[in-house]
Amino acid sequence: MLEIIKEPWPWYIAGPLIGLTVPALLIMGNKSFGISSSLRHICAACVPANVNFFKYDWKKEAWNLFFVLGIFFGGMIAAHFLLNPAEINVNANLKTELAGYGITDYSNLVPVQLMNFESLLTLRGFIMMVVGGFLVGFGTRYAGGCTSGHAIMGLSNLQWPSLVATICFMIGGFLMANLILPVILSL
Question: What is the pLDDT along the chain (187 residues), one digit of tens a residue?
Fold first, then answer.
């Protein structure tokens, strides 16, 4: 049984399990699935500033903080106890393309040549980690939610803004992967 858990699950199992969180949250307490709002709740609880954005009853949303905490600890447990020691399986064509950018180590979930403290001090690493992180945070706030909130919760509730946001996420992802990322990787 442990070997089954260590292997990547196919989309037709993992997808429905993720999708079932939407009705489960709705049935258990009329709650919405989403991760990005938890940062606002943490700031409202911890930052004693006089900022209108943080003036609300964050305690009503404390369940979301426990949900995110569960995701964090679940990920830590999985990374520590359920990690498959084999090299990450990457398509041969993608390996060839990435080798042209100096990316050859697939021993971790994210290539070591991209995500480490030494590369943070390079232009490529700074753009990918700092600028990319800023853009994700800005985009999440600008779109009124993250990909999980819009694409999973919003689409399942047939919300028009979530459809628009998800289409924009997909277009942005295609543009980034095919046009912008190769330029950044070549730096």
Answer: 677 777 778 889 988 988 888 888 888 888 887 788 888 888 888 877 788 888 888 888 888 889 889 989 998 998 888 877 777 788 899 999 989 988 888 887 788 888 888 888 899 989 999 999 999 889 888 888 888 888 888 888 899 999 999 999 999 999 999 999 999 998 8
Select from 127, 132, 93, 125 the least CA-distant residue to 111.
125
Closest CA to 119 of 111, 94, 173: 111
37, 63, 80 from 34: Cα distances, Å: 7, 12, 25
Region of residue 30 (left: phi > 0; alpha: psi -120 to 50; beta: else): left
What DSSP assignment string belongs to 107-162? Answer: SSSS-TTTSSHHHHTSHHHHIIIIIHHHHHHHHHHHHTS-HIIIIIIIHHTT-HHH
Burial of 165 (0-12, 13-18, 19+ CB in 10 A): buried
**Alpha carbon distance, N-terminus to C-terminus of the chain:** 44
